[in-house]
């Protein structure tokens, strides 16, 4: 029965590479269960059900005492055999102790799933679309709702629909990694109408592709909010044929209107006009991710140290996303020394901060380190 089901899954998804059933051993990772006291036979009574269960888990699954004790709290003695089978199967698919503990904590029901009829076919579906290695346990332990979805009614239809748009397994996997909800929700009614509406408004498939693979959450959001964000972006004049449109829609559709207003007001409180904010957003939509405190610090730095006006900053809005301590300030220090010594022309440009670390090192550090050796120390302090 299971072989026929797996064969059907692979045929429908047109899997080109058979990965087989080899055991995947995930790299070791530190325990995050520091709050759990080390388990030992003496710390829990021998007749305590959790003690007996934990011992069985340690002996049968080869997991640590702390992980076994944590998981044992979710296991009933009369379903212990089933739980052991589930955990053994999950380990075969690359789940390490941290993954197992997180999954069981968030979805205790996984321990009583039928291994052959329910759990393994779902894991095979994900393996069949090339979701393998550490990505599989990372996603499923973080979004265990995926394992609770029906294979035939939800997971398989969603995979087929998404792949019809994204073409390859690799693209499908990227979409799932960035937005697991694309597989958990009803894609046909939640996502497809939005995709069709975008196409009807002249948004090309390559832009929709970016939206699906990197900003899938925007497509599963509330339809009214999605439409509001779409209308707002059109009014900004962002070209729907450019990938910036996808990034802007991806950011704005997930951002509640109240939060958007707060972001705009924060910039305006720092001396920006509303037009300045909208222009910066239209060039670099990710600026809405920046915290209020970081925005204040970096805008003040740009104005006080570099002498930039808001109009100058909106020409290079990506600088708002850069690290003040690791990039902006060290480069400012190096350039200031060189300007003071008359080695370079005065004035800070966007190029000074946009160029790669390698190019900055060659053009301003290596080139002038003999005439201004102190700049080497500035760079060393950043790297240390």
Key traits:
384 residues; mainly alpha; 25 helices
Describe the structure.
This protein has 384 residues and is mainly α. It has 25 helices and no strands. The chain has helices at residues 2-13, 49-61, 65-72, 80-92, 97-106, 115-128, 135-142, 145-148, 151-166, 169-178, 181-184, 187-190, 192-200, 205-214, 216-219, 223-236, 243-254, 257-268, 274-283, 292-304, 310-313, 324-340, 350-354, 357-366, 374-383. α1 (2-13) runs parallel beside α6 (115-128), α5 packs parallel to α7 and α16 packs across α17 (243-254). The longest helix has 17 residues, at 324-340. It starts with a helix and ends with a helix.
Number of helices: 25
Strand content: under 5%
Gyration radius, to the nearest Å?
27 Å
Q: What helical percentage do the residues reach? A: 55-70%
Outline: globular
Separation of the first and last Cα atoms: 59 Å
- H and E string: HHHHHHHHHHHHHHHHHHHHHHHHH
Mean pLDDT: 85
């Amino acid at each position: 029965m299971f072989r026929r089901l797996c064969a059907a899954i692979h045929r429908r998804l047109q899997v080109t590479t058979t990965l087989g059933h080899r055991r995947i051993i995930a790299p070791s990772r530190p325990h995050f269960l520091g709050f759990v006291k080390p388990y030992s036979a003496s710390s829990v009574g021998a007749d305590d059900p959790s003690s007996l269960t934990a011992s069985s888990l340690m002996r049968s699954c080869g997991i640590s005492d702390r992980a076994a004790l944590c998981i044992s709290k979710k296991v009933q003695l009369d379903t212990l055999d089933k739980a052991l089978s589930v955990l053994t199967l999950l380990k075969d698919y690359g789940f390490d102790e941290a993954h197992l503990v997180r999954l069981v904590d968030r979805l205790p029901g996984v321990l009583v799933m039928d291994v052959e009829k329910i759990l393994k076919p779902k894991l095979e579906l994900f393996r069949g679309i090339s979701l393998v290695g550490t990505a599989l346990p990372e996603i499923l332990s973080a979004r265990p709702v995926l394992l609770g979805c029906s294979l035939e009614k939800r997971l398989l239809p969603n995979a087929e629909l998404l792949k019809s748009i994204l073409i390859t397994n690799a693209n499908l996997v990227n979409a799932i990694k960035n937005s697991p909800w694309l597989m958990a929700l009803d894609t046909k009614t939640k996502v497809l109408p939005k995709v069709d509406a975008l196409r009807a408004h002249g948004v090309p498939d390559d832009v929709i592709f970016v939206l699906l693979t990197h900003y899938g959450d925007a497509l599963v959001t509330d339809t009214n909010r999605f439409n509001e964000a779409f209308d707002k972006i059109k009014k900004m004049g962002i070209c729907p044929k450019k990938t910036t449109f996808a990034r802007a829609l991806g950011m704005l559709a997930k951002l509640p209107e109240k939060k958007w207003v707060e972001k705009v007001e924060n910039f305006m409180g720092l001396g920006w006009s509303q037009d300045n904010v909208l222009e910066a957003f239209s060039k670099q939509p990710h600026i809405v991710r920046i915290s209020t405190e970081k925005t204040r610090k970096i805008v003040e730095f740009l104005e006080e140290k570099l002498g930039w006006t808001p109009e100058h900053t909106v020409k290079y809005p990506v600088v708002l996303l850069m690290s003040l301590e690791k990039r902006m300030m060290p480069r400012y220090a190096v350039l200031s020394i060189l300007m003071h010594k008359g080695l370079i022309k005065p004035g800070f440009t966007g190029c000074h901060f946009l160029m790669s670390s390698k190019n900055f090192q060659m053009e301003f550090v290596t080139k002038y380190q003999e005439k201004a050796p102190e700049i080497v120390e500035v760079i060393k302090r950043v790297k240390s």
